[in-house]
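Q: Mind making up any chain with structure tokens?
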Amino acid sequence: MNHPTSRYFAAALLCVAAINGPQAEAAGPAYPARPIRMVVPFPPGGATDLLARVLAQRLGESLGQQVVVDNRPGAGGTLGSRLMLDAQPDGYTILMGTTSTHAIGPHLYAKPPYDPARDFAAITLVSSTPTVLLIGAALPPTSVKELIAYAKSKPGVLNYGSSGIGTQFHLSGELLKLLTGINIVHIPYKGTALVYPDMFSGQIALLFDTPSVALPFIKAGRVRALGVTSAQRAAVLPEVPTIVEAGVPGYNAELWFCLVGPAKLPAEIAARIAADTAKIVKLPDVKERLDQQGMEAVANSPAQLQKFIAAQNEQWSKVVRNAGVKAE
């Protein structure tokens, strides 16, 4: 029966639908409604790529959508990072940034390719990795203080190898020079693995490298670890002091990895990814993978990452200017 009351409620529902329909359509489906692209601005197989793939798998499970890793290497991470400048700020394209892409790289160019603060939306600092200052076993210094005194007695004689001009390992040495006044000569290589044979033979005196790579050589007595570059001691080298503890105030040169999005990324999306990442890095299997790479979980907030990136840019821009380093 077509009761008047039934007709009244039907008309009322049509009115509600007419009012709410356009708003619901404009709001769109809940995030995320499709796969997410995680750009990695370095080749497959490196530390950044390995971390991204561990995180992408778990983020996909947490968000309910696949997170696809897209390797876009070139120009020390600059090429892949520039993709964010044209990406839509909708949360479907994010970037695994690093010390190189978001604190050092832009300052190596006369015309910076992007502004790490202005052109990106901070999401979270995923993890950090201390590096270690190594010295050839045949050289006399056994501490950072002894190294500084030894280097000052022989200005321009000691050298140090790195994985290339403008890399973190190169600028770690430049930061040490800046803070201590020592004069050591930089010798660039195409990767730190190529430096070790020359250290063993005495051609290279010093090297900065990750503990995970250096540990076998330290244990074998082929190199000595003088100090770690982080604010706290490295878990795998608990007996090695930080360079600050060893007598160089203000020294910090950690490698770090962060998630960022395009500028104007909605705050709620950044917060969602940051919160999920914080849970993921605490999972036992993920923590084990990070430990294997010598990485320590951080997973801070977007606001904390923004402040951190600003502080890191202030430090490394000064080092780059002081050393006169330019991109090759």
Q: What stands out?
A: The CA atoms of residues 218 and 328 lie 32 Å apart. Residues 4-27 form the longest helix (24 residues).
